[in-house]
Amino acid sequence: MHVVPLPALADNYIWLLHDDAGQAIVVDPGEAAPVELALRQRGLQLRAILLTHHHQDHIGGAEDLRSRHQVPVHAPHDERITSATNRVGDGDVVHVDEPAARFDVIAVPGHTMTHIAYAGEGVLLCGDTLFSLGCGRLFEGTPAQMLASLDRLAALPGHLQVCCGHEYTAANGRFAQTIEPHNPALAARQQQVASLRAHERPSLPVALETERATNPFLRTDSDAVIAWSQRHGVDGDRVARFAALRANKDVFRG
Prior knowledge:
Layout: E1 2-8, E2 12-18, E3 23-27, H1 33-42, E4 45-50, H2 56-59, H3 62-69, E5 73-76, E6 86-88, E7 93-96, E8 101-107, E9 116-120, E10 123-127, E11 130-131, E12 134-135, H4 143-154, E13 161-164, H5 169-179, H6 184-198, E14 206-207, H7 208-214, H8 223-231, H9 238-251
Helix pairs in contact: 5-6
């Protein structure tokens, strides 16, 4: 399976997955035009659409693509997503015949209450729950819910390639550096991202095992995050540490 990030809107990625036979899946098409262009340029046939959550920058092009290509739209149980043809939830499996693909559906509430992720075919399609070196804002869920969702994703096989919804990695890295300034894996990732972005290349996808070594939101039990939390007056449990991280990231301007 070939995995292609398609830049869209201000800083979104639409994920295009396709096989060598020219059969394709798109994930979170915030607009239709970049998908149509990629399909034409690569000679691909669209066969399915996967949606992770209801935000318009992730579903805005789904209805147009569905009607043009007559394909199924797999989406969470959320009436705000009107383009859905197949509702899926935690523990479900999405099968696509062409390209041959199987994805496990994982409920990951926090960013939104009905947010889901898809894991399979070597990728983790996580929308706005997990970002490289960061995580999504809590628009509908609680810190406890979001931390539990991130724990579930972090427990998946490390070889999975994280395919998230936005190019936020450089900014997230600057915040992460304030939490773990002496983390060599983080320093190496920041250098890699700086080089990629300097050449106008995506910082994604990235291996989940790399995120486990560098992303402070997946490292709430690390000595560095515990020490940072204590310096910021947080002596509580891991949920309190996560909440403090997220609150500080919300106001970070580095």
